[in-house]
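Q: What structure does this chain adopt?
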Amino acid sequence: MALLEIRNVVRRFGDFTAVDGVSMSIEQGEFFTLLGPSGCGKTTLLRMIAGFDSPQSGEMRLDGQDLISIPPEKRPIHTVFQSYALFPHMTVAENIAFPLKMRKVPKEEIRQRVSDSLEDVRLADRGGRYPNELSGGQRQRVALARALVNRPRLLLLDEPLAALDMKLREQMRLELINLQKEIGVTFIYVTHDQTEALTLSHRIAVMNGGRVEQLDEPSKIYDSPKNRFVAAFIGTCNLVEAQVVAADGEKMILEIKGLGEVAARNPGASVGETGTLALRPEKIRLGAHLVPELDENHFRGKVRDFLYMGDVTVYIVEVGEGEHIEALLPNSAAGRPRIFAAGDPVDIAWRYDAGSFLNG
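A:
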């Protein structure tokens, strides 16, 4: 049995449906992420799990028992917010001890559990400091320690790294992964950052318009998006309108206006069906002259524009009659890498199974 079961949950605000019939199961010890753009319903769903809001219909069950009827203060659930919500007049140790004091836990037990929590987040030497004496990353760890000191069944994290700079966010992602592994508490994490979701999660629910568009492991969501929204929202993706003109076994032929015929992996589509070819830029080979390999699509084009990003360069290549394909070239060769300029003729190529055909 899953730790948390959510079935057909609906939450409306007047005429606006924030959460529209959402269902999902979250397992014990899982790092589960709700991912989507602003207004997609992810934070509303998190608030209902925490008990700060209630659904109009549907059910939520924790360890098989009804969760909706339990008031928020009695749920074995804690929430970490982006703002940290630390008491500035309390030391780090006092902040962490606060929820235990509210539950009237014996003093000696509080001392031991605070000490253990400080060890868990690697702040054992910071217990006597005040929040304003800590860095942003350290304050975030104090907020985590305070949330974990009661060993909740679920830890909810609402965009907890959004206020940190890029370098600190990268460090905190690693700390969150290690902390979750060590403690084993189930994390439900809310973010609009695709990279963060792919890095941290065991599974991701991609939300849009109050619904779950796709729920799966990060690699499957990235490599095999179920629809155009998921393909476009997760990372960078070429999305090209196409029609099936032949299908045989695992391979099919697509007709792309202005480009011609392209071989692709067959997901079970029928001849005549229209849809979208989703193709990640890093799956495309690019060079001045490429020798076609077995099972590859191969086109000649020219560079329309490029974006140098340090470790990679992203090229916009015009092929056929005005079709633009984005390709990514790593700058990993020794010495100064060759950078193609706008107007340079180039070849692009990709295996037939590098992309996904999305129906509709």
